[in-house]
Design brief:
CATH topology of the largest domain: Heat Shock Protein 90
Strand content: 15-25%
Distance between the termini: 106 Å
Shape: flat
Number of helices: 16
Number of strands: 19
Number of domains: 3
Largest sheet: 6 strands, antiparallel
Helix content: 40-55%
CATH architecture of the largest domain: 2-Layer Sandwich
Structural class: alpha+beta
Radius of gyration: 36 Å
């Protein structure tokens, strides 16, 4: 008979073993959960660091260090795309002996990830056909495990690649790729903002350059109008040297009868000795420019094939940097404008401005020779009208751009920043339209784009933009829409008219006040009324407020704002009018046919 007591398992021992196994499994699960929680916390901390850090280089270096630590990588690289070179270059390079790494944007695993937009996780890089071992041979790092994820613009355009490396096979965990993708998305958002701000800065600088050139032209025209005609050209030369920071300058004029170039105006080194001296036609840099009509710009004058050492020695002029441009007038070349010795040399923008100013010199010479005062005044009005109109109307949109730019810096969400960036881009487009319209105004052209516009949307945009324009002033704005249906009009031009009227009210009330915009419909007409509680329009200009260059003595007034308002109203087949009471305020009204039935 068998002894069952020796073959059966003791229930107590069985229970004890089961409990111990469960406890061990629970401990393992708890460790895994804790590890995942720590990793998740690290990702959150990286996101927080991205949100608060302003130094891009410091931020990217810190984030890549933390990312490498998070997944246990021995090396990590942040590649950015160089469009011009079609390369990926190492913005951040950690764990390598190389100072910089550049790859073709379709080379290796990084190139594949950039081109395809797909994440690659390889347990052994040398078994992956896409891997390029040349980098390992250059750096001495033996890559085995690799994870590479794409950096993508908010709209999907590739920006670069994030890559982490380890010298052991299978060193990374299954979920490491997801963590790296999460961090890469945060990095891409930062780069999106940087690229956007760079683009805005580039556009702003281009706009500032163009306005600067117009300003320079206007200054020269003011010089022409204010100087005695015998001194005009010398005054332009002086202003040109001041604007371009040249140490010496001269104007040489062609005298065909004597087949020579004569120094008629000179400033700077040995200027007095140059006056009335001459040089043969075609000789030297200035002779070549006056003969060929081609511009010469050199950092070192002696590097030019047209430099004549013997001529320079005879004239006693020492030249380093040189910029020489032809002086044109009425289809022929009168001579050359030569500028010398600017510290650091002359730039592309200097050349563009010198060409513009040389054109002014040519016209001034014609004025000086013919005493054509009427033609001189016409040029002054044309350029002055263009410049003052642009400067006057730039203030509103630029105020809005500045406001949204300041808000973008502190806005925590990508969506909000993108919305603000969109508004800024819209204002830049508005500026382009304004410039075209100002040119059309100066030329007397009529260009209007009529389309169906819903008033509630249009007025919402008007109120938002005018609120930004009035920010920081003591003027209150109120918009009342008795009519919110549809109408046909050019919304860009009408927006400009409302900006001009509001700006006019603002300038009339430097100590503060109230501006109210009313929109109503009467039968087939729609009208916009902009009223204020300012001092009213002086009686002496009441009958000509809509004429160009009429102001009431406002500090920053140009006299173009209301003239443009009237032109916009007339282009819409309507009228512009006003009512004003001294000490009680003014109300301007723009009225035109609505263009759609009242039922819409």
């Amino acid at each position: 008979m068998t002894d069952r007591s020796k073959t059966q398992t003791d229930p107590g021992s069985l229970y004890s073993g089961l409990v111990g196994g469960l406890a061990s499994k629970l401990n393992e699960l708890e460790d895994a959960v804790s590890q995942q929680a720590d990793r998740f916390t690290s990702v959150i901390e990286i996101a927080a660091e991205i949100a608060r850090t302003r130094d891009l280089d410091q931020l990217l270096t810190s984030v890549m260090d933390r990312l490498a630590t998070l997944v246990g990588a021995e090396a990590a690289t942040l590649f950015l795309h160089d469009r011009a070179q079609q390369q990926l270059w190492s913005k951040v390079l950690k764990g390598s002996s190389l100072k910089e790494l550049r790859l073709a944007d379709d080379e290796g695993i990084a190139g594949y990830v950039f081109q395809s937009g797909e994440t690659v996780a390889a347990e052994n890089a040398y078994e992956d056909d896409r891997f390029n071992p040349d980098v390992d041979r250059q750096s001495g790092f033996k890559t085995r495990s690799i994870i590479a994820v794409p950096l993508k613009h908010a709209r999907g355009r590739p920006l670069g690649v994030v890559e982490v490396l380890h010298p052991k096979v299978g060193a990374f965990q299954a979920d490491d790729a997801g963590l790296i993708e999460a961090v890469a998305a945060q990095i891409a958002a930062v780069l999106d903002n940087v690229l956007l701000m760079d683009e805005l800065k580039r556009r702003s600088e281009e706009l500032a350059r163009r306005v600067g050139e117009l300003d320079a032209l206007y200054e020269v025209e003011r010089t022409i109008s204010g100087a005695d005609q015998s001194k005009v050209v010398d005054a332009i030369l002086s202003k040109t040297m001041e604007l371009l920071k040249a140490k010496a300058g001269s104007i040489l004029l062609v005298e065909e009868e004597r087949d020579a170039l004569f120094f008629r105006h000179a400033r700077g080194e040995k200027a007095e000795g140059l006056l009335s001296t001459w040089q043969p036609t075609g000789k030297g840099i200035s002779g070549h420019v006056a003969s060929s009509g081609q511009v010469v710009r050199e950092f070192d004058a002696q590097a030019s094939e047209h430099y004549d050492k013997a001529l320079a020695k005879r004239l006693g002029v020492t030249a380093t940097a040189v910029l020489c441009v032809p002086i044109p007038s009425e289809g022929r070349i009168l001579g050359a404008l030569e500028l010398l010795n600017k510290k650091g040399g002359f730039s592309d923008s200097d050349e563009r401005l010198a060409v513009l100013l040389a054109g002014q010199i040519g016209r001034a010479l014609v004025v000086q020779r013919s005493q054509a005062e009427r033609e001189q005044q016409r040029r002054l009005e044309t350029i002055g009208q263009l410049l003052t109109g642009v400067l006057h109307d730039l203030r509103g949109p630029m105020t809005v751009i500045a406001g949204f730019s300041e808000l973008m810096v502190t806005e925590p969400t990508v969506e909000a920043r993108q919305e603000m960036a969109g508004r800024i881009m819209g204002q830049l487009e508005h500026l382009k339209a304004m410039q075209k319209e100002t040119l059309a105004f100066a030329r007397g052209e009529r260009t209007v784009l009529m389309r169906k516009v819903f008033l509630h949307t249009f007025l919402s945009d008007v109120q938002q933009q005018l609120t930004h324009m009035l920010k920081g002033t003591k003027v209150e704005l109120k918009v009342i829409a008795a009519y919110t249906g549809a109408a046909r009009f050019d919304e860009t031009k009408l927006m400009r008219a409302l900006f001009n009227l509001t700006r006019n009210a603002l300038e009339a009330m430097p100590d503060g006040g109230k501006v109210q915009i009313n929109v109503e419909r009467e039968g087939d007409d729609i009208f916009f009324r902009v009223s204020d509680n300012g001092p009213g329009i002086p009686a002496e200009i009441a009958d000509k407020v809509f004429e160009s260059f009429v102001t009431s003595g406002k500090k920053n007034g140009t006299g173009l704002g209301l003239a443009i308002v009237r032109k916009i109203a007339e282009e819409h087949g309507g009228t512009a009018s006003f009512k004003s009471k001294p000490g009680k305020g003014t109300a301007f009204e723009v009225r035109f046919p609505a263009g759609v039935p009242d039922t819409e």
